[in-house]
Amino acid sequence: MTADSASPSGSDVVAPQLVPVRPEAGDPLGSARPAFSIVILTYARDEVVARLLKALEGHLGARTDYEVLLVDNNTDAVDRGVWLRPFARAAWLKIGFNKGAVARNDGMAAASAPYIIVIDDDCFVQTPDFLDQFAAAFESDALIGAVTTGKVLEETMAVRRDLIPHTRKDVDLSKPFLTFRIVGGVMGFRRSMIEQVGAFSAEFFYGLEEIEYAYRIVEAGWKILYTPAIQAVELEHQGGRRPMSEISTIRLTNKYIISFLHMPFPQILFNYLLFTPYTFIFYRGQTSVPKAIAAFMRWLARRDRSRRHPIGRAARAYIRACGGVLWR
Hints:
The chain is 33% helix and 18% strand. Strands 1, 2, 3, 4, 5, 6, 7, 8, 9 and 10 form a ten-stranded mixed β-sheet that branches. The protein has helices at residues 46-60, 104-110, 130-139, 191-197, 209-219, 244-262, 267-282, 289-301, 313-321; strands spanning 17-20, 36-42, 66-72, 90-94, 115-120, 123-125, 144-151, 177-179, 186-190, 223-234.
């Protein structure tokens, strides 16, 4: 998802347009809901998302137990709904401006299935039966509210250890495990969890919004499952992206906000002290720490910002049981 913004303000904001792609075909499921809703968010990546949709078409084959919802953050007049015609049931959501990552929420709100799969427009699923694998993951435990998946390198299909949904990076990624983090790209959510917890926070246009969501999920008593049975290649396509120095600075600001909102005391102090130099080193000095701190202070001064709500004792115990540490 891009870190670039073209958002209108005030009365200029309009509701997204939901356009059925094949109204002449009627509803292939009749009155029945689909089992899966596949939500794809796109911006400034037409060539890539067209390839992604073609790959999904091959995976889904003759299935009819799904719907595809393409959430379009582009500002032009291109009809991207025509790309969805090969699918049994699909709709195009024209947002009208670049709303950022939170536009996923529009697709999730329009979804009608009990399992909602959210895919970024540059993330290619490598598992043909990925829908069945998501269903198996959710059905393994009624408290599984979210499922996060594995990432592999496109050239070698080797596991990407830089995209691990855990604070420990030495976990065994060949086996499923309960966790407290979500890595974006290809994610699954249980509808009943979303109805209780809500969707992604509107505080974040781009960057680390999955981490913030994960805090709220585990605080509400739900579990997050990592499964290696679903693998994806994330291209990290540069379409619509800002320079890395800006992206890394935005991510640091967002980490300050997320820690303030959800991290308990005194762990929050260790986080602020240690995560800042870690980010600076990880991005090889491209992060502007003063700009990140200034942006955080501006957010902190806002009257309409979210209130601090540190995770409670049960969530802290869950994170420790997963092998995590609270200060990270």
